[in-house]
From TrEMBL:
KW Cytoplasm (keyword) present: no
Subcellular localization, as worded in the UniProt entry: Membrane
Protein name per UniProt: Mitochondrial inner membrane protein COX18
Predominant subcellular localization, coarse grouping: membrane
Source domain of life: Eukaryota
Membrane topology: Multi-pass membrane protein
Transmembrane parts of this sequence: 111-129
Keyword Membrane: yes
UniProt GO BP: mitochondrial respiratory chain complex IV assembly; protein insertion into mitochondrial inner membrane from matrix
Keywords from the named record: Membrane, Transmembrane, Transmembrane helix
GO molecular function, one term: membrane insertase activity
GO cellular component: mitochondrial inner membrane
Membrane insertase YidC/Oxa/ALB C-terminal domain: residues covered: 2-181
Organism: Phaethon lepturus
């Protein structure tokens, strides 16, 4: 998508010229000319998306799967931790922890899991923010919103069973690992991911 922007800009300039010439020939008003420009530009952009197989909606597909799954697994872990499904499962969780969180049915009293979760989520937000060259007002608001959510998740994770906090931390850590790996120039070359303007030779 990023690599398409110069081509889209060039095609938009040419289209604007062609529409203005056509408008003079046929006698279109400025409003009609603008309508034809936008309509044709949308068509051209859609054709480019199809050609390069990079429709923006594809970037959101993972979210539509990930969020419901995250909610369902969180609720399942909560139910298992409070004994709502099976008391045997609750007993296994109460003795199935490790290190300082030996009881997965109780909240983490040390706050290590919640604070680690908040820090990992903040890191993910900052990595996304640092990738943007030109940031719109909406993107700034979205970034600040996710920063607030990352901080708010700390006290929330401190009140839920450790099994949920551990799952949230694991999920966020995998997300952070993906983000760091996808910023590696060596990994990107191995996967034949095209270079963009925002790419850095020293991303870390």
């Amino acid at each position: 998508l990023e690599n398409l922007q110069p081509e889209i800009k060039k095609l938009a300039e040419r289209l604007r010229y062609e529409v203005s010439v056509r408008a003079k020939q046929v006698g279109w008003s400025e409003k009609v000319a603008r309508f034809h420009f936008k309509k044709n530009l949308r068509r051209i952009i859609t054709e480019l998306y199809v050609r390069d197989n990079c429709h923006p909606f594809k970037a959101t597909l993972l979210v539509w799967v990930q969020i419901p799954m995250w909610v369902c697994v969180s609720l399942a872990l909560r139910n298992c931790s409070v004994g709502a499904t099976d008391s045997q499962v609750q007993e296994q969780l109460s003795a199935g922890g490790a290190l300082w969180f030996t009881d997965l049915t109780a909240p983490d009293s040390t706050w290590i899991l919640p604070v680690a979760l908040g820090l990992v989520n903040l890191l993910i937000v900052e990595i996304f923010a640092s990738q943007k060259v030109k940031v719109s007002r909406f993107q700034k608001l979205a970034t600040n919103f996710f920063r607030v959510v990352s901080v708010v998740m700390i006290p929330v994770a401190a009140t839920v069973p450790s099994s949920m906090a551990l799952y949230w931390l694991s999920s966020s850590f995998v997300g952070l690992s993906h983000n760091l790996l996808l910023r590696s120039p060596t990994f990107r070359r191995l996967c034949c991911i095209p270079r963009t303007k925002s790419d850095s030779d020293t991303p870390y």
